[in-house]
Amino acid sequence: MPTATPPLPDIGHPGRDRLVAAVDAAVAHPDAQAVTAALREAMQALIRDPAVRLPPCVYAPVDGHYARRELYRSPRHGYSIVAMTWAPGQGTPLHDHDELWCVEGVWHGALEIVQYERLEQAGARYRFRPAVAVQAQTGSAGSLIPPHEYHVIRNADPAVVAVSLHIYQAPILRCAQFVPQGDEWYLRREAAMQTDAVGPQD
C-alpha cells in the first residue's frame, strides 16, 4: 500500500511555473462547469507543450498499486495537482471523488475510463450501471463534476506504462469505493487516499 501522505517536497520540474499559471487562470472562472472546461483546454495544451515536463519519478510504476504522487498544492486557490502512474493492468475500483470536481489528462500512454450512473441506494448498498466508456489517449483530458463522479480507470495496455495528471478542487483525502455484490449492486466503503513519495528531479 502507499505510505501516508508525506510533506510536499520542494521539487521543481521544467515548466512547473507555466503549469501552475495555467491552472490558476482556469480556477478563476465563476463556477465548476466553466473551471473544468478551461482546465480541460489548458491540460491538452500543456501536454503538447515541450517546455512542460513532469518529474522523471512519475514514469516509474509501483508494484501492487497505481502510484499517486502529489506534485503541487495551491496555497492561494486550494487545488491539488497529482500525477498517477499506471503499470500495465493496474486500475481503480469503482469510486467517487468525495464531492470534489476533477480534471484528468493522459500525459503518456492510454487509459480506459468508464463512468457509472448511480441508479438507487439502500443504506450502504448502491446500484450502478456503466454509462460512458472512453479510451483516453495521450493528450486527451476529461472532467468529473459531482454528482456525476462515479468511475473506474484502468491501464489496459499489456506493455506500456501510462501517466495521467489530475487536478482536484482541493486535496482529496478520502473517497468512497464500491465493492461489487452482483446484479449491479455495490457495497460502499470509505477509503483514505494515500500518496507515494515524489523523488528528486533527475
Question: What does the model show?
Answer:
With 202 residues, the chain is mainly beta. The protein has one domain: Jelly Rolls. It is 14% helix and 40% strand. The chain contains two helices and eleven strands. The chain has helices spanning 16-27, 32-48, and strands at residues 67-73, 80-86, 94-95, 102-108, 110-122, 125-137, 141-144, 151-154, 162-168, 174-182, 185-192. The protein has a six-stranded antiparallel beta sheet, with no helix packed on it. The protein has a five-stranded antiparallel beta sheet with strand order 1-2-9-4-7, covered by helices on one side. A hairpin with a 6-residue loop joins strand 1 (67-73) and strand 2. Helix 1 runs antiparallel to helix 2. Residues 1-10 have low confidence and may be disordered.
Describe the structure concisely for a colleague.
The chain is mainly β. It is 14% helix and 40% strand.
